[in-house]
Sequence to fold (663 residues):
Amino acid sequence: MSGGAARVALVGAHGFGEIHRRNLARLAGLGRAEFVAVADPVPLAPGELPASVAVHPDLEALLAAERDLDVVIVSTPLHTHLELAERVLASGADLYLEKPPVTSLAQFERLRSAAVDAGRLVQVGFQSLGSHAIPWLRSALAAGDVGDVRAVTASGVWSRTHGYFTRSRWAGRRTLDGVDVVDGVATNAFAHAVITAMTVAGVRGGDDPRRVEVDLHRANPVESDDTTVVRLRRADADPDVTCALTLCGPDNAVEPFVTVHGSEATATFYYVIDEVHVAGPEGVSVERFGRTDLLENLLDARAGRAELLCALEHTAPYMRVLEAVRTSPDPHPIPSRFWERHGTGADERIVLPGIADAIRRACAAESSFTELGLPWAVAGRDEDAAAFALDGGPAPAVPHDGEELAAALAPRPYLHPVRTRSGAVLTDRSPLDHPWHLGVGVALPAVTGPGGRSNLWGGPDYVPDVGYRWGRTHGSATVSGRSRRPDAERTRLVWRDARGDIVLHEDRTWSWRTVDEQTWRLRLRIELSAAAGPVRLDSPGSLGRPGAGYGGFFWRFAPCTGIEVRTPEAEGEAATNGARAPWLLWTAAFDGARRSVLFCAPPEADDPWFVRTAEYPGVGSALAWDAPLLLEPGEPVVRTLAAVVSDRALSAADAHRLAAGRP
Fold:
């Protein structure tokens, strides 16, 4: 030691090592560190290092020449970390290891054992965890300042050039010469986004998270993923974490951020610049924070003045993410028709149009790109084996059990996509305006059973005299049995309240048939039964919000233009919303052509139609329009509806004929 300064050596002087060199110069000026030596096989230019810093070709030469080192920084390619880290620990020095620490869980356990055996400190270089915003956010969450936290998400949209992916032999690789590299958007470029979101959410390790899910895609001609969703499923009381990330953005104009979605406020943490924006009922406030340098923190920990901010042990949950990426199938290649080339040569970059909106949708719905059914994410993949089938042409509808859905969406079965006979998609799944809208299905906004009221629609609850408020009130519907014929599917469902108790049983049958070469008919029959004691079905309409009696059958349309909606006696949203009519005809332009869906009312009841065209495109048949619907045990509620889907723009005369069952 010289004047109390720690003797520090750096392995890997190029790339991020240059930042470490600048930081060591700063700490030397403060008298906290003595920059002793560098190891790098690539020579540095004259004058790049102080004359007092010794230069060695590799770590072995450095350790042989330099004695009494206090700290060694390893800033080298990912796949070299383990061997170098073990050698540093064996030398008796403490270790600063760049992120990620190693490239597999097995390597992590080996490194953890080596650190324990050596009795040395290991700090991992996730620099964002030094931000003072993190303890502030954790305290705010614990105090309930943002209300009940339903989700934590991370969003990252960057643009990377051909030069980025060819800067070294290991860049863009999953393996190199048989060795795991695990480069990728979640394991390298946006690794900070992932671990910062996990830290803010309080992911503890061990059995937390319960499960890690990854959805990997690539547009660039590399092995690794460049557009990915990582999702951490956690225990019921803890918010899940969803990270949606890409290197195929239009530019680097927006800093990546972590968002805490609370029932009372939303906190957005721009972790690169240590800034938090809190949006609540009173508006938006901005908090700015400082940051503790992780090397300084390691020096303080060596002196007994601090705890490590990113100790090796703290990265164990993140290593489960890396392991999920490492062991996943190769990323799904995005077909070239979905992306664009910008620039030339080393500056050429691939841009995925609309990716920023896709990132927002994935975070809002806590869903993967594949689950959202984004065309580039599902292109080239086999259609769901359960897809409905007609005589020729694309599958007209694909059923989903909905088990993958986030709790806040009220998990339940749905159909998506639903197509015309020519293949035009007429449904949307988790649009940004209402992520809980799921193609075509049945949803119930307010169900009161023996255990109280639950939300089986998704999204916020409608509270009389207050408005919409988020809460942990969501239940779910799960499939308990299924049978299939070529033209029909019958499912038995169990609806559970927010406590997990069974409140409803449902017998549901979808059937489908061809009408003509441009038209087909989808039929739905539901039978709802109270499971244990009386059940009350409400809607915002029955709870006091005029014109909002939705609940029951609901069809969320794909984006469309030139919408015309009519019943036999009325036209337009204002006149048809709440109308009781034998049919309702929706005609609009989808994919550049006008197409129609004719909805036929249930014969069992005179339920009003629920219609939206301005706020969003959707149609429903309301079970509890302006008064609750009561279900007594042994007295099921039955509804049978039909939707006639056509590649033609149907007329009112067509609607009359088709509703009557005539071609």
Remarks:
- The chain has a mean pLDDT of 96.
- The longest helix spans residues 105-118.
- The radius of gyration is 29 Å.
